[in-house]
Design a protein that fits this description.
The complex is a heterotrimer of chains A (459), B (714) and C (501).
Chain A lengths: L1 H9 L12 H10 L4 H11 L9 E6 L5 H11 L4 E5 L6 H15 L14 H14 L7 E6 L11 H6 L1 H5 L3 E7 L16 E5 L4 H10 L7 H15 L6 H15 L1 H5 L7 H17 L8 H9 L20 H15 L5 H5 L20 H4 L4 E2 H11 L8 H12 L3 E4 L9 E4 L3 H10 L13
Parallel strand pairs in A: 1-4, 1-5, 2-3, 3-4
Antiparallel strand pairs in A: 6-8, 7-8
Helix pairs in contact in A: 5-6, 9-10, 10-11, 10-13, 11-13, 11-14, 15-18, 15-19
Chain B lengths: L16 H6 L1 H8 L8 H45 L6 H5 L4 E7 L7 H12 L6 E4 L7 H17 L21 H21 L3 H5 L6 E5 L7 H13 L6 E7 L4 H6 L2 H4 L2 E7 L3 H12 L8 E2 L1 H14 L3 H18 L9 H9 L3 H9 L1 H9 L2 H9 L1 H33 L11 H10 L6 H11 L3 H17 L6 H37 L3 H17 L4 H20 L9 H4 E2 L2 H8 L3 H10 L2 H4 L17 H10 L4 E3 H13 L8 H25 L2 E3 L6 E4 L6
Helix pairs in contact in B: 2-3, 3-5, 3-12, 3-14, 6-7, 13-14, 13-20, 13-27, 15-19, 18-19, 19-22, 19-25, 22-23, 23-25, 30-31, 30-32, 31-32
Chain C lengths: L1 H17 L6 H8 L4 H18 L13 H27 L11 H17 L3 E6 L6 H14 L8 E6 L6 H11 L5 E2 L2 E2 L3 H13 L9 E6 L1 H5 L5 H12 L4 E7 L4 H4 L2 H6 L3 E4 L6 H12 L8 H16 L1 H13 L3 H12 L11 H11 L3 H7 L3 H16 L7 H14 L9 H13 L3 E3 L14 E3 L3 H10 L5 H8 L6
Parallel strand pairs in C: 1-6, 1-7, 2-5, 5-6
Antiparallel strand pairs in C: 3-4, 8-9
Family (chain A): Belongs to the ORC5 family.
Pfam families (chain A): AAA_16 (PF13191), ORC5_C (PF14630), ORC5_lid (PF21639)
InterPro entries (chain A): AAA_16, ORC5, ORC5_C, ORC5_lid, P-loop_NTPase
Chain lengths: 459, 714, 501
């Protein structure tokens, strides 16, 4: 007993403290979760000792990559608490989810090593099997933790799944705690008839200081830590405005670092003179914002660019290849569709009648139409209108052959048009044109048709 | 796939047209009505063999075109895979978040042609990995189905590596396998372990080629048609397992890679490592096809100008589908051999000669009936005419001769055409068109040298500077030499001679050089046609005024010589005797087959039944409605006069009046309602038929009204 | 080692005692109290003062200032006591199956009790609904009643109990299997149930009919989440249960627990007519004074706590707390927010979790912290984590809402607004590419701060999808106030009344 206490004395006290676990483990844990100590200690105190009951369900929310998943995993595994960890995205049906949990339960028990196929269709069976599984192994005396990552998926499943998980402890009458991880606030989960309220815990986003610290933590072996952290500083300067996702930032950091230390490698600059380095990297990073960050250019291509350092201008991003080769009439169909979906019906007379006289825009301007249609997006139009416009914008006459009609359908399958409403209706199918203004202008140019003249918004 | 093609109207789910055609039935069908003296059997089989040749040819072409693309893809796969393996120690690799390597494969809007491409692709990928899954949007409405399909295909191709063409796999019983990504991963581990042990023990040829852990390739055939949700889920899920499972995605894209960003939110697309691959444009594809199929003397069968125009127009205006073009070509072949009894002679020259000898009398008569042959006969002197018209034997040998001529004509035609193209294709504004097919059409249409386009192009040719001219001549020489035609040897000689003369000029050339160069300068300054011609004219005058330099004289000679070649060899085909045998020229039939006008057809059928039924009683001017017309026609005509909503009662009234119009005098009131019942019944039947056709539908808006669905009175 | 051992042993004894076993004091004394009583008393002495001093400490600072000596003396005993206290209280707060204490519902208790008595003793069939909002102690009530019932000797052993839960038995087929399983009738092998729905139902009804009210054992059906059973296909199960509860020979009683007041309207007529309209309402209808009392009772350690003195100290501390001003305010808030016990439990649990060896008694500040932790606007939290660009978008949306009176908007409009802002204040942040902004917008969408009003069909362009903002302007402004290093003119822009349209 006394020995025990003396042990306690000559161990350095960690910030995290808990009677149930040896200080060494806690220290290790603390080292593993930078900038998340407070959350971890709170969780620890809530969990209590192994055998003690804890909240039936805990709901942890916070931004993408604010360390929810990571912290839970490290916490549970370092303290060797019996737990089941499931990602709900992978289990896209409730059946998969439940079976997954049961299988993990089997596997985490020592004596039943064979993971036999479990069959569990309903939550009723789940509760039964769960009880058995827990009985078979020595889990009664410990709290079992079931972590459901990406819990927002549960909203899409059957209505009873989420509430049932929330009160699993009561339903199974076992010492179990269900932990839900999600990016979405709890208010959006609560079913309208209400349910058992979980204890909600917020993981705050990393502050810029935190990001700096975490990102600088693992620097490349060949460079010094503060050199790297200076780099991180610049990186954050560019991207922090837009993106605080730790993962993305780390990715970007890794991608652009080689470029950053180029001058050093070439011996033009030493690690000190940060201005030079900054001058070198800054435009590069700005470029990266429009390319890599949006995945316009794949990261591997980006790396190649850096190695044989040509201008990123050479390699065009995905959105550079907007040009679509279309058959002649398809082009006109598309143009007609665009006009039909962005012009008010009553203006057709003015645009497409030969002798419409001089009608000013103000004449048929309505009061509520100060917002342009290009803000509101395309309006649906019937097939006949499309054809009518087509006939009037194509100078030589077009026979309504099957080819024309099939082109319309194929434009739909190409996502350049889209059908509105269900498409099995016999009378007047309605369409929308889903291409951007730039796109349609490019198309119109190829058949030298001045589309702007025909657009109501640009009168 | 075919339903979402640009030309779905034309090819509605033919299970396998080839098989149907070779069946004996059609062979008989060829000869139906006629007696077999017009050796339809033979024709049929000629047709067969010809088509098979052409088919092989086209597929070959397609493969060659795709080769480049496929090689790129294969190397990409290898690369991405290597990045999966090893070098996890490398710092950047540790820091970088693992992305799923993805190939965005832009194939162009002609969806029908993709099928073959994908087939080639999956065959090419076999060398890298046996694990390939092809997914179509219509099989994957939900993530569940997608996983099922995926696992089904993967599990299968783990057992047998070959034959990925047919998508109808026997599903590995899904209820036993939980279709989740996890089980895929497990499967992959087990399989790779197995293959490793295999490679240790007895190397299977396929798995020997693959690396230790080959990538798993998932091909999304039609990216556009997939729903966002499904793709999103799949990508997110698989990105969870990317470390255990070397997955590679291939997106088949018809429009433009932008679709990726418009389909996937950035949070998802940031899980991908996308690289772009362009298949090259279908227009080039078409021109190669035309070059290899039409502008060659390999195949005896030829397309007339109008027919070619129809096909090309369908291609350019409606669908960019090369496949359809070839189909159309096939249709032409079948049609030709079917309709033209003499097409039996449309084969390689040697066989043709043999066959001529064995022509039956009727066939000889057929020959005599040919308009081109008539013209030929008229050009002969009297006794020869008689001989031709009476003596089959003589006819036969003349035919042989003529056929030979025709053959020679073709050979020369092709090569000279190419030469001419060499000249015209580099001229500013392309007066005779840029593509050789345009030139071809022009030449087929009528005497090209009479068109003013030709004139202008010659004038422009006269302005060419020396170096260009020489290179062109060089090219021409090559073309002519390569051509099999032996009577072009003289031409070759001549051209070579020109070249040598140019060499000789080198010495004293330079002072004229600058003149011409200056003129060239002017040319380059003024690019648009009008100015160009003006400058041409004045330049010409200036030339007239001062004496021509040697170079210019030579240039004139060259151009004139080319001109002479053109006049000699590029005579339109239909001036040639017996061209009917090899040329298919009935465009109307083709048009009827290829661009159908359903609305018009229906309308004429119902509005003017005579046009189809050919019953004299129905003959009447379109305005009035004959009471003898089928009920549905009457009802239809009446409904044309109505608006969107049709009152059934009025309609019935009108109907009965029309029907009873004839026997009005002897109809008395007592019997009339008796008749009325029947008429009523007929009316109801007719209306229901219209409804069946989808012209009207019952409407909720008004009682005993029906809504009219037909296009507004067209 | 030994320390742990003693703790576990103590725990074990304690559990035994819960089972009402006798346990003599002297045999546990050496185990639980290894120290001379004087030392322990001393320990308690400074503990007391420490506890008192704790009140003024914020919990953030751990009382590591405590000298090692105290730790040494009080560590063992305290550690164990506290872990036991934690165990008891946690069980009370979190483990809801345990029949907790009841407050202010004696009348309902009596009612339910004699209802069940009549079933079990005199074999009368019956049916009743217990109706009350969530956390009002429906299950607790039932459990207590059953507990007492089971203790009565004439009941003991002859009562079949069938517990169903709407969350588990989502359709009648499952429910029926569950019933047969719990009654374990003949067609149950292991835990598998055989036979079709119809067979099982017929079998069950047969089994229930053939008995007679004197001899055969009464059956009690408990339907938790009763309202969910209503949605089953034409309410077959409910119909049959209520029917046999009226007609059958075997005494059958059906108890439904639900939180829906309008439950009777949900029943079909034929079902409703067979239901004896007994309803037991649980409104937690107690005033604040009682609430305080509940608070005390909930937090108090039971009399049979092994370490009497600690329990006593603990309880006195609780007593003090209940009189403390700040605590009362906290409780007041809680009380107004929601009266039900569950929230109270959650809240107390949170406070309790802070109790450690070095911090052995709950303090006012603990409770305060807990209440703070309990009442945080989660949306504001999320907004706090957004990037500047995303904040800007939200502000743009706010302006749009102001201009178009909360009409739905689409990305294009938001982008427009943002553009206007950028053009005016170009210097503060450089102009972002449209796709970059789109990415930010999608992130907002992913966080469900913005919601598409109609189900986004597959083919619509994303920039034209109509959206609604799920934050109100006050929330936004509050969030902006606390937002770290937010550019000044972004703040101004947010503040500016109407955007410049």
């Amino acid at each position: 007993m006394h020995v025990q206490v003396t042990d306690y004395r000559n161990i350095k006290m960690p910030n995290l403290e808990h009677p149930a676990y040896p200080a060494a483990t806690l220290l290790q844990l603390e080292s593993l979760v930078p900038c998340r100590e407070s959350q971890v200690s709170l969780l620890l105190s809530i969990f209590g000792e192994r055998h003690q009951f804890s909240f039936p369900s805990i709901f942890i929310y916070g931004h993408t990559s604010s360390g929810k998943t990571y912290v839970m995993q490290t916490l549970l595994s370092t303290l060797q608490l019996p737990h089941v960890f499931v990602n709900c995205v992978e289990c896209f049906t409730s059946r998969l989810l439940l079976e997954e949990i049961l299988m993990q339960l089997q596997s985490c028990s020592p004596e039943t090593e064979q993971t036999s196929q479990v069959h569990c269709d309903t939550f009723n069976d789940f509760v039964r099997l769960f009880k058995q599984a827990v009985v078979t192994q020595e889990l009664q005396d410990q709290t079992l933790y079931i972590v459901l990552d990406r819990a927002e998926q549960l909203k899409e499943m059957e209505a009873n799944i989420l509430p049932a998980f929330l009160r699993l402890q009561e339903l199974t009458d076992r010492n179990v705690t269900v932990i839900l991880l999600s990016e979405i606030v709890w208010e959006l989960f609560r079913p309208n008839t209400g349910c058992f309220e979980p204890f909600t815990l917020y993981f705050p986003d990393y502050s810029i200081g935190h990001l700096q610290k975490i990102l600088s933590q693992n620097h490349p072996p060949e460079y010094s830590a503060d050199f790297y952290s200076a780099y991180i500083n610049i990186l954050l300067g560019v991207f922090y405005m837009v993106c605080r996702d730790l993962k993305e930032l780390q990715h970007l950091a890794a991608l652009n670092f080689s470029k950053y230390c180029e001058p050093v490698a070439r011996g033009e600059a030493n690690e000190r003179d940060s201005r030079k380095l900054w001058k070198n990297i800054e435009p590069h990073l700005k470029k990266a914002m429009q390319t890599v960050y949006l995945r316009e250019i794949s990261s591997s291509q980006w790396e190649h660019l850096q190695h044989d350092d040509e201008e990123p201008g050479q390699l065009k991003g995905l959105s550079a290849h907007t040009h679509v080769e279309l058959p002649y009439y398809s082009k006109f169909l598309l143009i007609a569709a665009y006009l039909a979906s962005y012009n008010p019906v009553r203006t057709d007379k003015r645009f497409f009648l030969k002798h419409h006289g001089k009608i000013r825009k103000t004449n048929f301007m309505k009061k509520h139409e100060k917002t342009s249609n290009h803000l509101l997006g395309p309006k649906p139009f019937p097939l006949d209108r499309l054809l009518a416009i087509l006939y009037s914008i194509v100078d030589n006459r077009v026979a309504p052959t099957a080819n024309i009609f099939s082109q319309i359908t194929s434009l739909v399958t190409l996502q350049l048009l889209s059908t509105v409403g269900h498409n099995d209706q016999l009378d007047g199918p309605r369409y929308k044109c889903t291409v951007s203004l730039d796109f349609i202008r490019a198309v119109a140019r190829t058949v030298n048709f001045d589309i702007i003249k025909y657009l109501y918004d640009f009168l | 796939m075919s339903t979402c093609s640009v030309s779905k109207g034309c090819f509605v789910f033919k299970p396998s047209p080839k098989k149907r055609r070779v069946s004996q039935k059609t062979a008989v069908h060829f000869s139906e009505g006629k007696n077999d003296l017009e050796d339809s059997e033979l024709r049929f089989y000629t047709c067969q063999s010809l088509w098979n040749q052409i088919k092989l040819e086209t597929e070959q072409i397609q493969e060659d075109l795709n080769k480049q693309l496929l090689d790129n893809l294969v190397s990409f796969l290898g690369r991405s895979h290597s990045e999966f393996q090893g070098k996890t120690t490398d710092w950047t690799c540790r820091m970088k978040s693992r992305e799923i390597p993805t190939a965005a494969l832009v194939l162009g809007v002609n969806v029908t042609d993709h099928e073959l491409t994908f087939r080639n692709l999956s065959e090419a990928l076999q060398n890298i990995t046996p694990y390939i899954a092809l997914l179509e949007a219509k099989d994957c409405p939900g993530i569940k189905n997608l996983m099922q399909k995926l696992m089904g295909q993967l599990m299968n191709c783990s057992t047998d590596v070959v034959s990925l063409e047919d998508d109808d796999y026997v599903q590995v019983s899904q209820n036993r396998i939980r279709c989740s990504m996890k089980s895929v991963v497990d499967w992959y581990e087990s399989v790779t372990k197995k293959t490793d042990s295999e490679t240790l023990s007895k190397k299977r040829t396929s798995s020997a080629k693959h690396q230790q852990s080959p990538p798993v390739v998932v091909i999304f055939k039609d990216m556009e048609s997939f729903t966002t949700k499904v793709l999103q889920d799949f990508i997110v899920i698989s990105s969870q397992h990317i470390r255990e499972l070397p997955l590679v995605l291939i997106f088949g894209i018809a429009t433009s890679p932008m679709i990726i960003h418009s389909l996937l939110p950035h949070s998802v697309s940031s899980l991908l490592c996308i690289e772009l691959f362009q298949s090259f444009s279908c227009k080039e594809h078409l021109s190669t096809i035309i070059d290899k199929l039409l502008l060659t003397s390999r195949f005896p069968f030829k397309l007339g100008e109008k027919v070619l125009q129809v096909l090309i127009n369908i291609f350019l205006y409606h669908d960019f589908s090369v496949w359809n073009f070839i189909r159309g070509f096939q249709l032409c072949i079948v049609e030709h051999f079917y309709s033209e009894p003499l097409s039996v002679l449309c084969c390689q020259l040697t066989d043709a000669k043999k066959r001529v000898n064995s022509l039956s009398h009727e066939q000889c008569e057929n020959v005599r009936r040919l308009p081109s042959f008539r013209r030929y006969v008229e050009r002969q002197e009297a006794e020869k005419q008689i001989a031709l018209l009476t003596a089959d034997s003589f006819l036969k040998e003349t035919t042989q001769k003529l056929l030979e001529d025709l053959h020679v004509y073709h050979e020369n035609y092709v090569s000279v055409l190419k030469c001419l193209h060499v000249f015209t294709c580099s001229l500013p504004k392309y007066p005779l068109g840029k593509q050789i097919r345009e030139l071809h059409c022009a030449c087929l249409e009528n005497r090209v040298w009479e068109t003013e386009d030709y004139e202008t192009s010659l004038q422009l040719a006269r302005m060419l500077n020396k170096s260009d001219l020489e290179t062109m001549l060089q090219q021409c020489v090559e073309i002519l030499v390569s051509s099999s035609g032996n009577e072009l040897d003289k031409a070759v000689e001549k051209l070579k001679e020109f070249l040598t003369q140019f060499q000789k000029l080198e010495a004293e050339a330079f002072q004229e050089q600058d003149v011409s160069v200056s003129s060239q300068k002017e040319l380059q300054k003024k690019t648009d046609l009008y100015h160009l011609q003006k400058t041409l004219l004045e330049l010409k005058d200036s030339r007239r005024s001062k004496k021509l330099t040697k170079f210019e004289m030579l240039r004139f000679e060259v151009v004139d010589y080319i001109d002479s070649l053109v006049r000699r060899y590029l005579v339109p085909a239909d001036h040639k005797t017996l061209h009917e045998i090899v040329y298919f020229n009935t465009a109307s039939v083709l048009r009827g087959h290829l661009n159908a006008a359903p609305r018009i057809a229906l309308h004429t059928a119902l509005n003017n039944p005579y046009s189809y039924l050919k019953n004299q009683a129905l003959k009447c001017d379109s305005g009035s409605i004959s009471s003898k017309a089928p009920d549905i026609c009457i009802v239809y005509k009446l409904h044309l006069e109505c608006g969107r909503l049709i009152n059934l009662v009025d309609w019935l009234e009108a109907f009965s009046t029309v029907v009873t119009a004839v026997d009005e005098p002897n109809a008395d009131a007592a019997s009339s309602d008796q008749v009325d019942d029947i008429i009523h019944a007929r009316f109801i039947r007719a209306v229901s038929e219209l409804e069946l056709l989808g012209f009207i539908k019952p409407s909720k808006q008004k009682t005993d009204h029906v809504a009219r669905l037909t296009w507004g009175g067209c | 080692m030994a320390w742990h051992g003693s703790a576990r042993l103590g725990a074990l004894r304690f559990t035994e005692r819960l089972r009402g076993r006798e346990c003599r004091a002297e045999e546990e004394a050496p185990l639980v109290f290894p120290f001379p009583s004087s030392g322990s008393a001393a320990g308690y002495g400074d503990l007391a003062c420490e506890g008192a001093s704790c009140c003024c400490w914020p919990t953030a600072i751990k009382p590591s200032a405590m000298s090692k000596r105290k730790a040494k003396e009080s560590g063992g005993a305290n550690g164990e006591c506290i872990s036991q206290a934690q165990k008891i209280l946690r069980e009370r707060f979190c483990h809801h199956c345990a029949a907790g204490r009841l407050f202010g519902i004696e009348h309902q208790y009596r009612h339910l009790l004699d209802l069940l008595k009549r079933t079990t003793v005199h074999g009368e069939s019956n049916s009743a609904l217990i109706i009350g909002p969530r956390g009002s102690g429906k299950t607790a009530l039932l459990n207590c009643v059953l507990k007492e019932l089971k203790e009565m000797k004439q009941v003991r052993g002859n009562l079949l109990e069938v517990r169903l839960n709407g969350l588990l038995q989502t359709n009648d087929k499952v429910a029926l299997k569950e019933i047969t399983r719990q009654l374990n009738l003949e067609n149950v092998v292991g835990d598998k149930v055989f036979g079709s729905f119809a067979e099982n139902l017929a079998f069950l009804l047969e089994a229930l009919r053939k008995g007679d009210r004197t001899s055969s054992c009464p059956v009690l059906f408990i339907l938790d989440e009763f309202d969910l059973f209503v949605h089953h296909k034409n309410q077959t199960l409910l119909y049959n249960l209520f029917d046999i509860s009226q007609s059958a020979q075997t005494p059958v009683t059906v108890i439904g627990l639900t939180c829906r007041q309008d439950i009777l309207e949900l029943l079909e007529k034929r079902v409703k007519s067979r239901f004896s309209h007994r309803q037991i309402y649980l409104m937690n209808s107690f005033d604040f004074k009682q609430y305080i009392k509940i608070f005390k009772e909930q937090l108090a350690l039971p009399a049979d706590f092994p370490d009497k003195s600690f329990a006593q100290k603990w309880n006195t501390n609780v007593q003090h707390l209940s009189e403390d001003k700040t605590v009362q305010d906290v409780l007041q808030n809680l009380f107004h927010h929601s009266k039900d016990l569950r929230t109270l439990h959650l809240f107390l649990m949170l406070a309790l979790s802070n109790v450690t060896v070095h911090h052995p008694l709950i303090t006012a500040s603990d409770l305060h912290e807990a209440s703070k932790q309990y009442r945080t606007d989660s949306r504001a939290n999320i907004v706090h984590g957004l990037s500047v660009l995303e904040i800007c978008l939200i502000i743009a949306m706010k302006h749009l809402n102001d201009v178009y009176e909360g009409e739905p908007f689409n990305f294009q409009m938001v982008y427009n607004e943002f553009q206007k802002f950028i053009q005016r204040k170009a210097h503060c942040m450089y102009n972002f590419e449209k796709p970059v902004v789109m990415k930010a917008f999608e992130h907002l969408l992913q966080l469900e701060l913005v919601k598409p009003i109609e189900r986004p069909n597959i083919r619509a362009q994303r920039e034209y999808l109509l959206m609604k903002l799920l934050l109100d302007s006050t929330q936004i402004m509050d969030a902006l106030q606390v937002y770290p290093n937010c550019p000044v003119d972004v703040k101004q822009w947010a503040a500016s009344s109407l955007s410049w349209l």
